[in-house]
Design goal:
Blueprint: E1 5-12, H1 16-24, E2 29-34, E3 43-44, E4 47-48, E5 51-55, E6 61-65, H2 72-81, E7 84-91, H3 96-103, E8 108-116, E9 120-126, E10 132-138, E11 158-165, H4 169-178, E12 183-190, E13 193-199, H5 203-206, E14 209-213, H6 218-227, E15 231-238, H7 241-250, E16 254-262, E17 267-273, E18 279-284
Parallel strand pairs: 1-6, 7-10, 11-14, 15-18
Antiparallel strand pairs: 1-7, 2-5, 3-4, 5-6, 8-9, 9-10, 11-15, 12-13, 13-14, 16-17, 17-18
Length: 288
C-alpha cells in the first residue's frame, strides 16, 4: 500500500495575484508558480494552468489556483462555492496503485487517474464524508520546491497542516488511519466530539499534520452549516503566538478571536480569516 504524505492545500481563487499579497505580508514566500504558458506544466482546452504555491517554513504548502479550471467537476464546485479551500493533496510513490485501494474503502473517484506531461500523475477521490482528496506522484524529476524547514521571522511561524470538519469524527479518524495509514499523534475526543491530530511516519522530520475536528467556533459552525463536512482551516504554530496573530491582523487578516487557551489541544490558539474568507488557526508550539 502506498505511503500517503501531506503535500499541499488547494485554495481556489478568482484573482490569486491579488489574494496572495496578504499571505506574503505575513511571512510567506513563493517557492514555485506555474502560470499560463509555463512549458513544463499541462495545458487545457480553455487555457493554461495557474498555480501559485505559498510556503511558510515547512514542507506543507498552500496552492492558489485560478479559473478556468481543468475539469467540469471543478468548474461546478467553483460556481457553487466561489473562492475557498477546495482540497488536500497527498503525495504517494505510485498514484495508480491507490485507485482501487481507495475505492474499495468507500471513496469515489471525481477525476480519473491521468498523466500530466511528464511532471506528475494522479487523480482526485472523494472521501466518505464528501471532502476531496487529490493523490499525486512526481515523475520525470519534477518537484515543487520545498522551503527551508525552520521557523520564519521573529515570531517563529510555521505552516503545520490543515483542519477538516467532520460530521462523524470517530468514523473519519478510523478511515484516515486505516485507509491513508495516518497515525494519531494527539487525541482529544469525548463522545464523538473534539479533535484528533493525525500524521504520517515522517512526522518527526516534516512536522505536518491533518486535524479531524468537530466545529468549535461560530465561524466553523457556519462553514459546516453551509458546506457540510469541509476543509475548514489552515493551521500554523508559532513561538510567539500573540505576536504572530497580531502580525496577521496587520497583514490584512480579519480577527475572529485572539489567542486563548484551547483545552482540546492544551495550547493557546487564535483564529482569523484571510481576506477571501478562509479560516486560519495559530497555536503555540507543542512537543507532540
Amino acid at each position: 500500500m502506498s505511503r500517503y504524505q501531506l503535500h499541499h492545500l488547494c485554495i481556489y481563487e478568482r484573482h490569486p495575484r491579488d489574494a496572495m499579497w496578504n499571505w506574503l505580508k505575513w511571512y510567506h514566500a513563493i517557492p514555485a508558480y506555474y502560470w499560463d504558458g509555463y512549458a513544463d506544466m499541462h495545458q487545457t482546452g480553455e487555457g493554461g494552468v495557474d498555480y501559485t504555491f505559498l510556503a511558510c517554513g515547512a514542507p506543507f504548502q498552500l496552492q492558489l489556483e485560478a479559473p478556468p479550471y481543468q475539469f467540469e467537476y471543478e468548474r461546478k464546485w467553483f460556481a457553487e462555492h466561489g473562492s475557498g479551500i477546495n482540497h488536500i493533496c497527498w503525495i504517494v510513490p505510485n498514484a495508480w496503485e491507490t485507485v482501487d485501494h481507495l475505492e474499495s474503502h468507500g471513496a469515489t473517484v471525481a477525476m480519473p487517474y491521468e498523466e500530466f506531461g511528464g511532471t506528475y500523475n494522479g487523480f482526485v477521490a472523494i472521501d466518505p464524508e464528501g471532502r476531496w482528496v487529490e493523490i499525486m506522484e512526481y515523475v520525470g524529476g519534477f518537484k515543487t520546491p520545498d522551503v527551508e524547514f525552520h521557523p520564519v521571522g521573529h515570531v517563529g511561524l510555521q505552516a503545520l497542516g490543515v483542519v477538516q470538519l467532520c460530521r462523524d469524527l470517530d468514523t473519519q479518524v478510523e478511515w484516515y488511519t486505516e485507509v491513508l495509514s495516518q497515525r494519531v499523534v494527539h487525541d482529544a475526543r469525548s463522545d464523538n466530539d473534539g479533535l484528533v491530530y493525525l500524521a504520517d511516519d515522517t512526522y518527526r522530520e516534516r512536522q505536518c499534520v491533518s486535524v479531524l475536528s468537530t466545529p468549535s467556533t461560530e465561524a466553523e459552525a457556519a462553514l459546516m452549516d453551509r458546506h457540510g463536512p469541509a476543509i475548514s482551516s489552515v493551521l500554523y504554530h508559532a513561538d510567539d503566538v500573540e505576536a504572530a496573530w497580531s502580525d496577521a491582523v496587520s497583514a490584512g487578516f480579519e480577527p475572529i478571536s485572539p489567542p486563548a487557551h484551547d483545552g482540546r489541544i492544551g495550547a493557546k490558539t487564535g483564529y482569523l480569516q484571510e481576506p477571501s474568507g478562509n479560516i486560519v488557526q495559530i497555536r503555540e508550539r507543542l512537543g507532540l
